[in-house]
From TrEMBL:
The keyword Membrane applies. Keywords: Membrane, Transmembrane, Transmembrane helix. It holds the Pfam family DUF3267. The keyword Transmembrane applies. It comes from the Bacteria. The chain crosses the membrane at residues 16-38, 44-64, 111-129, 135-153. It comes from Virgibacillus sediminis. This is DUF3267 domain-containing protein.
Amino acid sequence: MEQKSETVVSVSMLKLNVWVLAASIVLLVGVGLLHVLLFGEASLTVTFSGLLLFFIAMMVIVCLHEVIHLVGFRYIGGVSRQELAWGFNWKMGVVYAHAKKPITVEQMQKVLLLPLVPTGLLPMVLGVALDHFSLSILGVLLTAGCFGDFVLYRKLSKFPGHATVLDHPSKPEFTVYE
């Protein structure tokens, strides 16, 4: 029987958080400049109800992001519903989606990038298009939140598309079998 090589691919949460913060700042400045150039200002009024709505929207969209990963595992990776899980890692403060069955590198790359447009870029673009700066800020934070998926996508790029990937149940890491 052929022995497959096994490589653990992981992301340092500290490094990732630094990159997410940097990406958030760059995107926020860029989106703010777009608002100023297009509409003459980038104004934001903070109220308790507005802040509450913002955080509720953030939580709902973060959960939707993970649901989209689950849909990707199901329909791109062919993982059965019984082999899918999602939850919240209290220690790391992250919501996660998990496939208990291995899928190919090519499938995993698609699954990783699937939520970027609907849960990140779309709110940001809509915020700019509608001159709704708080929606733009929400989109910036959600787009920056997709950065971990993008980092994992890039790390997978060095492996052949047919290699298999087993997702870690609760951490941003997986094992690649070649």
